[in-house]
Amino acid sequence: MFDNRPVIGVIAEFNPFHDGHRYLFQNIKESFPDSIIVVVMSGDFVQRGEPAIFHKFQRAEEAVSDGADLCVQLPTVFSTAAAADFAAGGIAALRSIGCVDYIAFGVESENKELLEKIAALESSEKEEVYEALIRSGLEKGLSYPRARSLALTQFLETDEILWPNDILGVEYLKALHMQETDIKPVMIHRDQSYQSAHAIRDEIRKNSTHDTEGPVFLDDFSTMLTYRILSLVCEKENLSAFSGVSLELAQTIRKELFTAACFSDRIMSLKTRNFTYSRISRALLHILLDIKEDTTEYFRHSCFGMEKSDSCNTTMPLPYLQVLALRKDMKPCLGGFLSEPVTTVENYRRKIECKASQGRKEDIYAMTLLENDIFAAALYNAVAGTEQKFPHLSSRLHVL
Questions:
Q1: What is the pTM for the complete model shown?
Q2: Residue 328 near residue 399 (C-beta atoms within 8 A)
Q3: Is 293 exposed, middle or buried (0-12, 13-18, 19+ CB in 10 A)?
């Protein structure tokens, strides 16, 4: 609650912001007429392992102009992660705001109880029979998502399938359980009549003239990626140290080093039965952005509740949340954040550098998380043609 009004959280990419998102906001307002909508939004790079098509401030401003009250950035380490870590990072960010009562998200399935059952199954100790069904599917040549979906229909004895857009919903439910939060889920059925973000991006790509501040596409980073991989290979760096890069994928990346020139072609040259397009794209992006597996692992155990312990808190708030856009009357809300509300990145950077120099593990990883965000913003702005600036609340941030 904030100002005696219910607070509804939304985790989103808005890549780009479109009518389907307005539909979600309208549904929230119909169910909670006096509510406040706070958004945790991906910044410069998104979960598919690609750059956001438009700048994060532009997308945040559109969201606040069209119904949201506050928009903060999901740190890049989580916004570019696979579904489980993306969802867990988003839930941790909502917890860190300190006043969120509900999380609203879209689902395709009419059977919301089934999604709850799946989340409960996968949040508990792993069922040997369920795991064996997944392995059986993989051995038959199915991709992991397909093997998982088939195992669920067999284990839960249902003919209903897990739709792709429901997978993230299940991960939100699992994260709520793992992080033992009081935030309650509100599942809103998706209206399929709206044009999808993917279709909109395809249209933009076809008609793109590459203006000074966007749109930005994956292959705009091709030269950067090639240079980065070449440098790491020449320096004999361990590619499997990067988040999402297995030993097998690391070896394949080295083997196929000179087979493709552009980012998307490199993904296709690495794609196999075991490695999906999105998984490879995320892995290559993590190499480009210097996102290491140990950083992701630290936050899994310290903030996501994935390692229960009586001696330490494993659901700490995130160290900081960068504020992208907000309404004027939401400024007092920042004072209730459990995380550090960052409105001027350079100021927070100096503060956390000082703390990290004292050697505390949590401060060192907070610094790493911030450096990943800063580096991602610098690369994005270099490609988009925008000058790298760390905006101040009163200037670059959109305050209505």
A1: 0.94
A2: yes
A3: middle
